[in-house]
Design a protein that fits this description.
Layout: E1 4-10, E2 13-24, E3 27-31, E4 44-48, E5 54-58, H1 61-71, H2 81-86, H3 90-99, E6 102-103, H4 122-135, H5 139-147, H6 157-171, H7 173-177
Antiparallel strand pairs: 1-2, 2-3, 3-4, 4-5, 5-6
Helix pairs in contact: 4-6
Length: 178
Amino acid sequence: MDPVPYTVVTKDGTYTVPDALPLSPGLVLFRLPDAMLPTNPRRWRIGHTPSGLGIADAMRREDGIRAIKVIAALADWSLDADTVKAGIDTDELFAILLRHDCCGPNVDRMTGDVSHNGRYTDADVEEAARAAADEQMDGLELLSAMAHTVPWMGLDTEPFNEAHSRILAIANPAEVAA
């Protein structure tokens, strides 16, 4: 599945996303552009291709992929938005989305700019390692602390595990070696 350009339609205007993932006919998954909804911690959006409208937001890319696989069977998403809305039970749709850790577009908000949620840098790793060492956190405490702190909360499983291992190795090299 090669990424495709996708135009997002919002009440504030349109955004072009160059690398949306077409996971099912009429449905794409994309990361919100940094300038779009910077207080929304759920940076992955399921979009409706024909209309450009958002269907749901996910914290992690993995959650969005799983949700699309399930909701794809609920409707012919390649049709226009009004036709899809008329033929779908929205309560059922959102119940399914919630079971896959997705919610309506832009319903979660945090104070400040969290647009980098789910992305981390070497500087983030070093800062988290310093904090873990200062607090003398063990691996479990570090996992718990990371899971709820931007940018860690939006990472998919493998990047999260890799970042945790790097932080733990820097913060407590003796523990890691044992």
